[in-house]
Amino acid sequence: MHITLDEIARRAGVSRSTASRVINNHPHVNPAVRERVWQAIRETNYQPNLPARSLASRRSQVIGIIIPQPIHTLFADPYFPLLIEGIAQVCNERQFSIMLELATNPTGDPYRHIGRQGFLEGAIVASAIEDHFLSQWLAQESIPVVSIGRISTHPAIPYVDVDNRQGARMMIEHLLRCGYRRIATITGPMNIVAGRDRFAGYCDALDAAGLPLLPELIVEGNFSEQSGFSAMQSLLQREPRPDAVFAASDMMALGAFKALRAVGLSVPDDIGLGGFDDIPLAAAMTPTLTTVRQPINELGQTAARLLLDRITTAARDLAVERVILPTTLVIRESCVR
User: Which domains, from first to last, does the chain contain?
Assistant: First the structure.
C-alpha cells in the first residue's frame, strides 16, 4: 500500500498542512502534535518525495559533513565511521540527507566547493586543521556551521567536544599511580585543538606530580597508526628509554605497540602503554589497551542536533552553543605493573 501525506495526517489527527510542516521541520508546531505525526510516519514507514519537497519548499534537506583529512585516514581510522553513524542517526530521524566532503587534495583548499552552489542547508566540520583555508571559509560561509571539536580561532562557531585535557590528565595520573615515572607522549597534531588539549593534560599531570617536562619524551604524531609506529621508533632511541607511553589516539597506540613488538619488547612488562578514544580495537588488542573513552557516536548525534536546530530555527534566536561531553578512563591490561 502506498502511503500518502493525507494518510499520515489522518492517522495523526491533524490537517495535511500541519503534517507537511512537521515533515519540513517547521519550528512553529506544537511538540505533542509533532510527535504524533512522527509516530504515524514511523508506524507506516512513510517515505516523503524528497525531490518534490525540495522544489516546493526550495530547501534541499541536505547537510554536509566536512572532514578535511586525506581519504585514507577516513577509512583507516574507526573513529570516523562511528562519528558519521551518529550524525546519520539524527539526520534519518529528522528526514535530512547527508553529503560527505573529503580533502581529496591535501595541498589545496578542502572547503572550496562547500556551499557554493546553494545546495547544502548547513555543514558539520570535524577534525578541522586550524589554517588559513578554514579561516577563509568560515569568514565567507553563510550557511549554518557546527564543529565537532573546538575551533580556537573562531569562538563564535557552535561546537561539541569532549574534555580532552581532563581525559589526558586522567591517563597520566593513572600511569603515575601504577608506578611509571619516565612517561613519554605521542601527541596529536598541534594544528588541531584536540592535539593541543591532550598534550596540555599530559603537562598538567606531570606538573602536579612535580615531574619535569622532558622534550626528548615528546614526539608529535597525526593520530594515524603509522605515525604512532614512527614516533615509538624515535622514542626507543632515547636513553634512558621511557617506561610508559601515552599515545593521544588508539590508532597511534596500536602503531606504538607494533613498533615495540618489532624489537622484541613487551607491553606492559617492558613499557606501559595508554591510548585515547576507546575504539573497538582497544578491547581486542592483546594485551587489551588502557585508554580514555570519548563518546564518539554521541559527539556525532549532538553535533547533528545542534546543526538541525539552527537550520529550522532563525539563527538570531539561538545563542552560540558549546557542548562538552565527559571522558572516562578505561583501565585494562596494557599498563599493569
Answer: 5-48 (1.10.260.40), 62-162+297-325 (3.40.50.2300), 164-294 (3.40.50.2300)
Q: Residue 299 CA to chain centroid, in angstroms? A: 6
**Which residues are CB-contacts of 203 (< 8 A; sequence separation ≥ 6)?**
213
Q: What is the pLDDT of residue 55?
A: 46
pLDDT of 48 reads: 66
What is the pTM (predicted TM-score) of this model? 0.81
Report pLDDT for 154. 86
